[in-house]
Amino acid sequence: MTDTIVETIPILPFGMLNAFLVVNKGQALLVDTGLPNSKKKIEKALSKHKLDWSNLHLTILTHAHIDHSGSAAEIRSLSQGDILAHQDEVQYCLGRPPVLRPTGTFGRLFQKTGAIQQPFDYFTPDRIMETDTLDLDEYGFPARVLHTPGHTPGSVSILLEAGRVIAGDLTASGILLGGIVMRNRPKQPPFEEDTSTVIASLEDLLSRGCEQFFLGHGGPLTAAVIKKHIEILRKK
Fold it and tell me: How many Cα atoms within 13 Å fall on the side-chain side of residue 22?
């Protein structure tokens, strides 16, 4: 039994894009901020738990693509809380164009729209993670941040109690961008910088006892489904 609640914030409907509010003993941390102008969706999640911006002391970015970090600067201004990102992700926080390696037909078509390359309010993280793991005890959460590269060089995952992990875009599920239907079917996200490193990161999470994987697109997925996804990636 755990007191820590994971609240999925639907930035886009049908699980196409998720952020997450983690609540423990009346305090909250936010994992990813969604696209620009996602403030009201995050505010609604806080209100559901009778919280407001003053209860949000930390925002963790799984990575700095626009759909995960597009509202980071605004959320920091509202909450006065820290933004945490891995040192290998700071380049994207500061505005360097992301490396886009499409994983299939949808990724190639999506890349042509230019949507993920749109500018947003760039920022410098307040906390820059320089180690492979970081405990969140100082923020009052029984959780750890783990460097899990592959989707991007500085991608991180958040390990919570009871075998739960928020794994960003290490994998996705559903169709197209992710979500919508067949949300229990794993797939690669539209872009992935290094698939072999993704495999290593997913195996690391499994070795740490992760059983439920919350994802930026689609999900959640079980450990058994993640193992099957790894087998498919290896064959590629």
Answer: 25
